[in-house]
Amino acid sequence: MTGGSVNKDGASDATSSTLLVRVKAKDQEAWRRFVDLYGPLVFSWCRRFGLQEADAEDVRQDVFRTVAESIAGYHHGDQGDSFRGWLRTITRSRALDFVRRKAREARAVGGSDAQAGWLELPDVQDDSGSSDEGDKLLLVRRAVDLILESCKEENRQAFLRVVIAGEHPADVAHDLGMTVNAVYVAKSHLLRRIREEFAEFVEI
């Protein structure tokens, strides 16, 4: 990551630009981080659309190839749009492309019965049962993991226990041998990093 400074946790702070801005600028480290952030969610969508594990991984790769080609045209805050919704639409489209391709191959090899088998994959077109809140939570957890992976262990534990588990800062401070103020500072610092880097992506 370019242009950052080293913070007291020994980790590099995000630059003044958010992750989305840096991805659009074709920053390779930002792209890796973006894929790390959204990869598990895209894979879960593929599985929810009815794809087998290996097929879901193939489609996941197709999704990120499509994103790499088209992300420059995405504008956060478009009316009725969100980045997660935009990415979900791409994922659904690539999943349908995959199913149609397999159906054509099945027709060529095994006739109409084999084709029908592919077209009956569950939930490829109807994902109405999916949980938007579950998607948000998965994304938040992944963002937290990415930010916390390089910070001091006591700060990591303090953040997880106070913000994620909802424990009282005084109890956490006592258990970790920290001052209560240090717990609050760690919480505030890490929340700021998450919100700055993943501003367009994560609600926390």
Key features of this structure:
204 residues, mainly alpha, Rna Polymerase Sigma Factor, Chain: A, Arc Repressor Mutant, subunit A, 67% helix, elongated
Q: Can you walk through the features of this model?
A:
- This protein is an all-alpha fold and 204 residues long.
- It folds into 2 domains: 16-130, Rna Polymerase Sigma Factor, Chain: A (Orthogonal Bundle), CATH 1.10.1740.10; 131-204, Winged helix-like DNA-binding domain superfamily/Winged helix DNA-binding domain (Arc Repressor Mutant, subunit A, Orthogonal Bundle), CATH 1.10.10.
- The chain is built from 8 helices and no strands.
- It has helices spanning 19-24, 28-48, 53-70, 83-119, 132-148, 153-164, 169-176, 180-197.
- Helix 2 (28-48) runs antiparallel to helix 5 (132-148) and helix 3 (53-70) packs across helix 4.
- It starts with 18 loop residues before the first helix and ends in a 7-residue tail after the last helix.
- Residues 1-16 and 121-126 have low confidence and may be disordered.
Structure classification: mainly alpha
Number of domains: 2
Percentage beta strand: under 5%
What is the count of DSSP helices, taking H or I runs of 4+ residues?
8
Count of individual beta strands: 0
| CATH architectural group of the largest domain | Orthogonal Bundle
Along the chain, the helix and strand elements come as HHHHHHHH
Q: How do you describe this structure in short?
A:
This protein has 204 residues and is mainly α. The chain is built from 8 helices and no strands.
